[in-house]
Design goal:
By secondary structure, the protein is of the alpha/beta class. The chain has a single domain (6-120), classed as Transcription Regulator spoIIAA, CATH 3.30.750.24. The protein is built from five helices and five strands; from the N terminus they run E-E-H-E-H-H-E-H-E-H. The protein has helices spanning 27-43, 62-74, 76-82, 93-105, 118-128, and strands spanning 6-12, 15-20, 48-53, 83-89, 112-115. It has a five-stranded mixed sheet with strand order 1-2-3-4-5. Helix 1 (27-43) runs parallel beside helix 2 and helix 2 (62-74) crosses helix 4. The chain is globular and about 40 Å long. It starts with 5 loop residues before the first strand and ends with a helix.
């Protein structure tokens, strides 16, 4: 599934991979991303890892960070029920700080990890698979 802002795909049966485009999303693009992500989680027949690959993204404006926090709050039950771990791939230290600001507005309802590259994130998932 492709929005102008995010490409969402199933990497393996229980890994939802979100690759963000190198654009500054408008409100509608960001809203479409959130809808597609929710639909991907709902349609999975098992618990999932979500990889958010923000390697090439721009900083999100406060309005969109707030929207992300609101989405987390609105989808609390779904996240608790279906998400094993949210893994963020963020090479930029300032962007990692932005993510922490989202979590300061709304605490995550699933475990989360932040890595500098995709390889580290995939290694983490591999180490957790025997627990699933």
């Amino acid at each position: 599934m492709l929005t102008s802002y995010a490409n969402i795909s199933l990497r393996e049966k229980n890994i939802i991979y979100v690759k963000f485009a190198s654009i500054k999303p408008d409100f509608d693009q960001f809203e479409n991303y959130l809808i597609e992500l929710k639909n991907s989680v709902i349609s999975s027949d098992q618990k999932v890892f979500i990889i958010l690959d923000a390697t090439y993204t721009f900083f999100l404006p406060f309005e969109l960070r707030k929207k992300q926090a609101q989405w987390i709050k609105e989808n609390k039950d779904l996240i608790i029920e279906k998400v094993l771990c949210t893994i963020s791939i963020i090479p930029n230290s300032i962007q990692r700080t932005v993510l922490y600001s989202i979590y300061a507005i709304q605490k995550p309802y699933s475990p989360y990890k932040i890595f500098k590259d995709l390889k580290q994130g995939m290694e983490y998932i591999s180490s957790q698979k025997e627990l699933v």
